[in-house]
Amino acid sequence: MLMEGSILRHQRETIPYIYQDGDKDLIVIMCHGFGSDKNEVGDMFKRTADVLYTHNIATIRYDQVGHGDNDCELVYRTYQRQVDDLKFICDYTKKLGYQKIILLGFSLGAKVIGDLLNDENDFKMIISWSGAIENGLGSLKGKHRYDVQDDKLIFYFDFRSPLVLSSCWSQEISQSRALDGYNAYDGKILAFRGLKDTIVDPDCLKSITSDIKIISYESDHIFDALNDSDIADEVIKITVKAIIEQK
């Protein structure tokens, strides 16, 4: 069953999501990257979820604040709210009856996971795609064009309309302890990186001291997902295999 809707977060604030059910023992929560949405670039999250569904493994993917269909008020468009929303989604899946949770994060989504790990780390496995796993802003600094207007940060992209966040977003992400969160995690970490990544330093993974397996490709930040390449397909294939092994 595929269900698309919104979870009531607080009063009129909702989190748009797509949920595909499966056995109640395991669910994968997908946390997308900066400027993206719940399906991710090249539909990589959607494609992963569709394959997992054939193996009766549940998934939920959602739009973070200001992204995709999440048009929440400006006051909520903060980095801390991104972390809090991930925790909210985790709690929501537990109420649905799922016993084991795997977190999959792409780029900034993997960073959000890291900050959650500082407070909660009872997850079956963590999977990172081009994860910005650094304390503070790290190698993301200066990678996106933006303007400051009153209480707004307006980011500009070549592939989508401007992204509007709260002005406190940059201050909050500068205080990120994502790397600390990964190093405190005592489960398995599977991390994919593109060695030609110009958005996130692929060598940031070398600072992780936990149980991590790193898979590298001669690719860009998005694993050449928008080009005629098999790399993105392979990332999905290996990811699915690793998840199935956790059942």
What is the strand and helix layout of this fold?
Elements: E1 2-10, E2 13-20, E3 26-31, H1 44-54, E4 58-62, H2 79-95, E5 100-106, H3 108-117, E6 125-129, E7 145-149, E8 152-156, E9 163-166, H4 169-173, H5 178-184, E10 188-194, E11 212-217, H6 231-244
Parallel strand pairs: 3-4, 3-5, 5-6, 6-10, 10-11
Antiparallel strand pairs: 1-2, 2-4, 7-8, 8-9
Helix pairs in contact: 1-6, 2-3, 3-5
CATH class (first level) name? Alpha Beta
- Shape verdict: globular
CATH level-four homologous superfamily name: Alpha/Beta hydrolase fold, catalytic domain
Q: Looking at CATH, which topology would you report?
A: Rossmann fold
H-E order: EEEHEHEHEEEEHHEEH
Largest sheet composition:
8 strands, mixed
Euclidean distance between termini CA atoms: 19 Å
- Unreliable spans are none
Radius of gyration: 17 Å
> How are strands sequenced across the largest beta sheet?
1-2-4-3-5-6-10-11
Describe the structure.
It is globular and about 50 Å long. The mean pLDDT is 95. The protein has one domain (2-137, 175-244): Alpha/Beta hydrolase fold, catalytic domain (Rossmann fold), CATH 3.40.50. Helix 1 runs parallel beside helix 6 and helix 3 crosses helix 5 (178-184). With 247 residues, it is α/β, with parallel strands linked by helices. The protein has six helices and eleven strands.
